[in-house]
Design a protein that fits this description.
The chain is of the alpha/beta class. It has ten helices and ten strands. A five-stranded antiparallel sheet has the order 3-2-1-5-4, with helices on both faces. It has a five-stranded parallel sheet with strand order 8-7-6-9-10, sandwiched between helices.
Length: about 280
C-alpha cells in the first residue's frame, strides 16, 4: 500500500476515534466498486458536516456529504448505493458503488437503583449491547458476585456515596446516554433526577406511579428547574406492555429507550402494516 494512502487511513482512523470520544455520530463512505475511482477510498462526515478523507472527486465528496445527512436521519446501520442514486448529475461516476456506514459510540445506559427492576434492566441492556452502569447506595446490591455471568462482566457497578455525584459522574459526556431512575424512594429519585436533568442526556426516565412521579417533578419545579426539561422526563418510565414482573418491567423500559434512540414510535408493527 502506498505510504500516502497508509497515512490517510491512519489519520482517518484518528478522526473517527475522536468523533466517538466526543460522542458524535458520523457517516463513513467507502468506494466499493468503480471504473474511475480507487476502490477503498473513504470519506468520513460528522453529523455537523465536517469531513475528512477523500473519495477521489470534490463534487462527489460534497454529494456524499449531503446524502450522509439524510442517511443519519434513518435507522439503517449501512446502505450501499450507486452514485446515480443520490447524485444523478455526476454522470461520470454514475455506476460507482459506495457504502454508507453509521459510525457511533456504543450506546450507554446509566441505571440508578439496583433493586429487582434495576438489576433486571442492567442484565437485559448488557445482553442487547449497551454499555451499562448500575448504581446503588447499598453495596450488597452492586456486588460483582451477583453479576458474574460472561455477558454481565461488562456492567459497571457503582456504590453511591451521594446519589447526585454518582449519577453525574456516570453520565459524563451526555451524548448517546440514557438514564433510567428506578430507586426505592422519593428522596433518591429527586437526587438522581437533579443530576440527570443538569447533564442533559438523550433520555431520562423515572419509575413510579403517576402520583409518585408527579411529587418528584413538582418538587424540582418548585426548586426552579426548567419546565421544558422536566416535561421531557419519561415518567412513569417505559412502554405500556402490561408488564408485571421485574423482568417484564425492564423489557418495557428498554423498549422505550431503544425506540427513543432509533426513532421508533413504539406501536404495534401489525397495526402499522394495516394502516399503510
Amino acid at each position: 500500500m502506498p505510504a500516502d494512502k497508509t497515512q490517510l487511513n491512519h489519520n482517518l482512523g484518528d478522526h473517527l476515534r475522536a468523533f466517538l470520544n466526543e460522542g458524535s455520530t458520523a457517516t463513513l463512505v467507502t468506494v466499493l466498486k468503480s471504473d474511475r475511482l480507487k476502490t477503498g477510498a473513504k470519506l468520513a462526515i460528522k453529523e455537523d458536516g465536517e469531513m475528512f478523507g477523500d473519495l477521489g472527486d470534490g463534487r462527489l465528496n460534497e454529494a456524499a456529504a449531503a446524502s450522509a445527512a439524510e442517511f443519519l436521519m434513518g435507522r439503517e446501520e449501512a446502505s450501499s448505493l450507486k452514485v446515480a442514486d443520490f447524485a444523478p448529475a455526476l454522470e461520470l461516476f454514475g455506476t460507482t458503488l459506495v457504502l454508507f456506514e453509521r459510525i457511533e459510540a456504543e450506546p450507554r445506559l446509566v441505571i440508578a437503583g439496583a433493586g429487582h427492576v434495576g438489576a433486571s434492566l442492567s442484565r437485559l441492556a448488557a445482553l442487547v449491547g449497551y454499555d451499562v452502569t448500575l448504581i446503588d447506595d447499598r453495596p450488597e446490591l452492586v456486588d460483582r458476585n451477583s453479576f458474574s455471568s460472561p455477558h454481565e462482566q461488562g456492567i459497571k457497578l457503582i456504590t453511591a456515596v451521594r446519589w447526585e455525584d454518582a449519577v453525574r459522574d456516570a453520565i459524563g459526556k451526555a451524548r448517546g446516554v440514557s438514564v433510567a431512575i428506578v430507586t426505592r424512594g422519593h428522596k433518591q429519585d429527586e437526587d438522581c433526577l437533579r443530576a440527570a436533568i443538569a447533564a442533559k442526556p438523550d433520555y431520562v426516565g423515572m419509575i413510579g406511579s403517576k402520583r409518585r412521579t408527579n411529587i418528584v417533578l413538582d418538587k424540582l419545579r418548585e426548586e426552579g428547574f426548567d419546565a421544558e426539561e422536566l416535561q421531557k422526563v419519561r415518567a412513569p418510565i417505559g412502554l405500556d406492555i402490561g408488564a408485571v414482573s421485574p423482568e417484564e418491567v425492564a423489557l418495557s423500559i428498554l423498549a422505550e429507550i431503544v425506540a427513543e434512540r432509533r426513532g421508533g414510535m413504539g406501536l404495534s408493527l401489525s397495526q402499522w402494516r394495516r394502516d399503510r
